Amino acid sequence: MPNPSTFPIKGLRFDLQRAGGRAEEVALSPEALRTALQYSPTRGLPKLTAWLLEQQRREHAPPEAAAAGLDVAVTTGSQDAFSRALDALVGPGRAVLIESPTYAGALACLEPSGAVLAEVETDGEGLRPDALRAVLQAWDEA
């Protein structure tokens, strides 16, 4: 583990704007900063993953069967998390519905998987229901 005295960052402070224009300052304590800059378990800092898990339980109230196996992991970024989720869930020949146009990073993760991509047209509100209906009605289960 690196010696915290060698870390070049000595403090972090964020100025947030909350709903209604209310300003809030959030600062990491020196102890929290040392922890954040240090190596941690692969799935994330234990206090953070425990807090996220509790948030999931409180905000989404999953059924008991689902809650028993509920877990979270913290990744280095949204692209990393997306890629890992696709690796776990999508394999060759599996169908994946994608927005059209779509995020190029999604294609970079999906194309090597061998998945069959089905495009669904979008508008300013997201997926067009009529376009989704058309794709699903033409769906070939084989």
Automatic annotation (TrEMBL):
Gene Ontology BP, a term: alpha-amino acid metabolic process
Protein name: Aminotransferase class I/classII domain-containing protein
Cofactor(s) the protein needs: pyridoxal 5'-phosphate
Top-level division of the source organism's lineage: Eukaryota
Keyword flag Isomerase: no
PANTHER family xrefs: AMINOTRANSFERASE (PTHR42790), KYNURENINE_ALPHA-AMINOADIPATE AMINOTRANSFERASE, MITOCHONDRIAL (PTHR42790:SF19)
Organism encoding this protein: Prasinoderma singulare
Gene3D superfamilies named in the record: Type I PLP-dependent aspartate aminotransferase-like (Major domain) (3.40.640.10)
Keywords for this protein: Aminotransferase, Pyridoxal phosphate, Transferase
Molecular-function GO term, any one: transaminase activity
Entry-linked InterPro entries: Class-I_PLP-dep_aminotransf, PyrdxlP-dep_Trfase, PyrdxlP-dep_Trfase_major
